Amino acid sequence: METYTRELYRALGRLPGDWEYVGFVSREGAELDLNWFPGRVVESGISGENRFAWAWGELVQVGRAARRERADLVHAPATLGPRRTAMPTVVTMHDMLYWSHPELMTTPLYTAPVKWMEQQAAGNAAHIITISPTSQHEISKYLHVPIAKISVIPLAGQSPAGVDRSLAGSEGPLIIAMGNRRPHKNWGALIRAAALLPEHERPRIVITGGRGDDPLASVVSENGMAPWVELRGWVDDSEVAHLYSVATALAIPSFAEGFSLPTLEAMGAGLPTLLSDIDVHRYVGGDAARYFDPASDRSLAELLAAVLADPELVAAMSSAGRARAAEFTWARTAEETRAVFEGALA
């Protein structure tokens, strides 16, 4: 959502017209470099690190701030939004995971409050933007919003700077995976699938994005994969560029997603992508990616073996991925978003 907000408003600022943007930002956000925002920034005084304070601020204080600023329109870009506003509101809802996959959420105490707040935001919204057809149908199903009131506007990818795919394979066969450790990400499947391969065929696996004690450590130990798997925390841009340069492929075994931004970023860099066969991944990856059953470790193991053994397949996927990623641009996202804003104002 941070990437979405930043890149969307950077692109909105490049569009012609006399639009004026006022950013209502958290206490911590106000301390960051906000040069990407195309207008004035107002510090809310609300902590973005305290999830309950942030959520309550979205519900109650955003509407009051918009009234003070005499805004014509409110845009809430991070799924939650005001419960009431005097002016039309557009809410971007990224996914409905608390509704569709509550058993995979790591914060069960949040489930009921989040669902209630999403209902409030949807009820007040003049229009809802979402990022995939899957999310559009789930918003309509769970929040009872007419499909005509929900626009699908996809995200766009921005590959890391400094990626050099001529280095691919220079550190041996390597599969990378990036993301948080929430259960719906299904990272354990990648570790178990690699364990099914003969030892001399196993790739090295690097999974980034963990914080604190990594729940995947036990999966690595139970499957005897310590020599092949590295569990890393958050990595900086230079390390991401290095991994994208030397890796054989990126793997994402998720059971559910609202979109798949890492897929676009990887394909744009020429990195082949191996994706779980869910509708969202098909929507993003198209024919450029290769797919496997997220509930079958054997399915993923067979795909890993095929990619690792076939340099021509890797080259074809790299070329097709670049072409696919080029279809998604932040300029397109901004243009379609402003059209929704105009419709809400009308």
Number of helices: 13
**What would you say the CATH architecture of the largest domain is?**
3-Layer(aba) Sandwich
Provide the spatial order of strands within the biggest beta sheet: 9-8-7-10-11-12
Q: In percent, how much strand structure appears in the residues?
A: 5-15%
Q: Measured on Cα atoms, how large is the radius of gyration?
A: 21 Å
> How many structural domains does the protein architecture include?
2
Shape: globular
Distance from N terminus to C terminus (CA atoms, Å) equals 27 Å
SSE class: alpha/beta
What CATH first level of the largest domain would be assigned? Alpha Beta
Give a description of the structure.
With 346 residues, the chain is of the alpha/beta class. The protein folds into 2 domains: 172 residues, Rossmann fold (3-Layer(aba) Sandwich); 161 residues, Rossmann fold. 42% of the residues lie in helices and 13% in strands. The protein has a 6-stranded parallel β-sheet, with helices on both faces. The chain has a 4-stranded parallel β-sheet with strand order 3-4-5-6, with helices on both faces. A two-stranded parallel sheet has the order 1-2. Helix 1 crosses helix 13, helix 6 crosses helix 11 and helix 9 packs across helix 12. The longest helix is centred in the N-terminal third of the chain and has 18 residues. The two termini are 27 Å apart. The relative contact order is 0.12. The mean pLDDT is 94.
